[in-house]
Design goal:
Low-confidence stretches: none
Organism: Jeotgalibacillus soli
Number of helices: 16
Domain Glycosyl hydrolase family 13 catalytic: 3-394
Radius of gyration: 24 Å
Bound molecules: 1-O-alpha-D-glucopyranosyl-D-fructose, calcium ion
Number of strands: 21
EC number: 3.2.1.10
GO biological process, one term: oligosaccharide catabolic process
Keywords: Glycosidase, Hydrolase
Strand order of the largest sheet: 13-12-11-10-9-5-2-1-14
Length: 533
């Protein structure tokens, strides 16, 4: 899977925003990587407070991205190259400029009032103590009708009321509109938030916002969505499901559940601001055991919401290329569908702009405002938000070393990462040892080695702080993956059963590694990755 955040991908009309025409022009590059499915971030009409995740018209294309004709050509061009396209489905909330919300908020007895979640104040205050992802409260007061409405994200993103059957059927109609155009599935945005805690009670610990999701009723909604829409099409669905355990995750993706096919869970992304090898391995093993034989996991470490993996979990200084390859090798050999976020395949890094004004992300800007309003020092708050700012992943793709990295002939909507002169597609494609060609090999291996897809997984190094050594076994084939996540050499002694005379080296991220006679005791160099069969 390859994620295209189109507004940062390639700009063809010089307005500083990437666009769908730009995706069409670069499809051969994506195809060359070996991609099967493209996940396109939202390109529907939107006032763009949350970069397209605040939709004001589900069945028309945002002017910045292009128009429906461009979108139809993109779908056709993707299919002509034997690839598939899945779209982002954002139905927990709309924009506050969606006509539905404009009607709903116009008066208490408007027929669409109950399409959103409106509550009276309690003791002159918010209806309860729930926090939102992007603001201190999920409640926003509307003077005109003297009630609060709920928003799990920004004020500009009112939550739809999924208890209302009219809403659900309107959404199913919209889904059919896109599926009947021939898309190949959906990535379902925060889909586990659709059902709200019954009665909207105050919670013990409002800052731990997992009470916003996985509430009773969610599976009934998804089973209805499956019955009404999903099961009638030959498609794939991946749910974005924050704050979920493997046991709960299985309820969304179990093959006998008739809900979704796979999911992104966020244990790694949210619980591990920086690398914790042992915790990561524990999460991987728990998810493998939790879904084994009954459901499919997804493997990712970065996307448009989470910073670039080579910066957050690798070493983007002395070992940028090695650790970019190592992380790619891990994500493509662990159990689950691997996702490549645009730019990951050339080892693009996170960014550190000089001031909050260089940043765009509403989540970061809201957090900055909330914290300095508490009297905290602005520079200290700014510094504290840099590592995890979503804009780390949203800087323009660096195509070459020309002005604005060849992304736009205009002024980019967000600054290009200053390291574009060194890190760009052009130099990557010219280097046979680049991250790109390593990813290309990994993806090609998955098409010819079922062990990578169906193999049983066994971690041989659960307690090791820096080495990650595991096997995948399928129908007599056993792969041994050896990863050294540290900046120093590490030695691994293999348990019995691995001292066969010869092991075949499938792929290594260091040059001139040979197939050793025995690998009973192996010294791995900093950020070295090896795959043996
Ligand atoms: O993300 C929801 C979500 O879980 C992220 O907001 C994440 O938890 C947060 O960024 C901190 O890590 C989805 C979309 O991917 C995101 O871009 C939208 O802002 C959000 O939903 C609202 O639609
Ligand atoms: Ca453009």
């Amino acid at each position: 899977m390859y994620q295209v955040y189109w507004r940062s991908f390639y700009d063809t009309n010089g307005d500083g925003y990437g666009d769908l025409e730009g995706v069409i022009e670069k499809l051969d590059y994506i195809k060359e990587l070996g991609v099967d499915v493209i996940w396109l971030n939202p390109c529907y009409e939107s006032p763009d407070f949350d970069n397209g995740y605040d939709i004001s018209n589900y069945t028309s294309i945002m002017e910045k991205a292009g128009n429906m004709e461009t979108w139809e050509r993109l779908l056709q061009a993707v299919h002509e190259r034997g690839m598939k396209l899945i779209m982002d489905l954002v139905v927990n909330h709309t924009s506050n400029q969606h006509p539905w919300f404009i009607e709903s908020s116009s008066s208490k007895n408007n027929p669409k009032r109950d399409w959103y979640i409106w509550k009276d104040s309690v003791d002159g205050k918010e209806p309860n103590n729930w926090r939102s992802y992007f603001t201190p409260s999920v409640w926003e007061y509307d003077e005109k009708t003297e009630q609060y409405y709920m928003h799990s994200f920004a004020v500009e993103q009112p939550d739809l009321n999924w208890e209302n059957e009219e809403v659900r059927h309107e959404i199913y109609k919209m889904m059919r509109f896109w599926l009947n155009k021939g898309i190949d599935g959906f990535r379902l945005d925060v889909i586990n938030l659709l059902a709200k805690l019954k009665g909207f009670p105050n919670v013990e610990n409002p800052t731990n916002i997992n009470y916003l999701g996985n509430n009773p009723g969610i599976h009934e909604y998804l089973q209805e969505m499956n019955r009404e829409v999903l099961q009638h099409y030959d498609i794939m669905t991946v749910g974005e499901i924050p704050f979920v355990t493997p046991e709960d995750g299985l309820l969304y993706v179990g093959e006998d559940r008739n809900e979704l096919h796979t999911l992104f869970h966020f244990e790694v992304a949210d619980d591990m601001p920086t690398w914790d090898m042992v915790r990561y391995k524990e999460i991987q093993t728990r998810w493998y055991e939790g879904l084994k034989g009954r459901g499919t996991n997804s493997q990712f470490m970065n996307n448009h919401d989470h910073t670039r993996q080579v910066t957050r979990y690798g070493n983007d200084q002395e070992y940028r290329v090695e650790s970019a390859k190592l992380l790619g090798a891990m994500l493509h050999t662990l159990p689950g569908i691997p996702y490549v976020f645009q730019g990951e395949e050339i080892g693009m890094t996170g960014v550190r702009f000089a001031s909050i004004d260089d940043y765009n992300d509403i989540a970061m800007k809201n957090k900055y405002k909330e914290e300095i309003e508490k009297g905290r020092d602005p520079q200290e708050v700014f510094e504290s938000l840099l590592l995890l700012s979503r804009d780390n992943s949203r800087t323009p793709i660096q195509w070459d070393d020309s002005e604005q990295a060849g992304f736009t002939a205009g002024t980019p909507w967000i600054k290009v990462n200053p390291n574009y002169k060194k890190i760009n597609v052009k130099e990557t494609l010219a280097d046979p040892n680049s991250v790109f060609y390593f990813y290309q090999k990994l993806i090609a291996l998955r098409k010819t080695n079922p062990v990578m897809i169906y193999g049983d997984y066994n971690d041989l190094s659960p307690d090791d702080e820096s080495l990650y050594v595991y096997t995948r076994s399928f129908e007599g084939t056993r792969w041994l993956i050896m990863l050294n996540h540290s900046d120093s050499k590490s030695e691994f002694v293999l348990p019995e059963g691995f001292n066969e005379e010869k092991k075949q080296l499938i792929l290594a991220n260091y040059k001139d590694v040979t197939s050793e006679k025995s690998i009973q005791k192996t010294i791995l160099l900093p950020h070295e990755a090896r795959i043996y069969q």
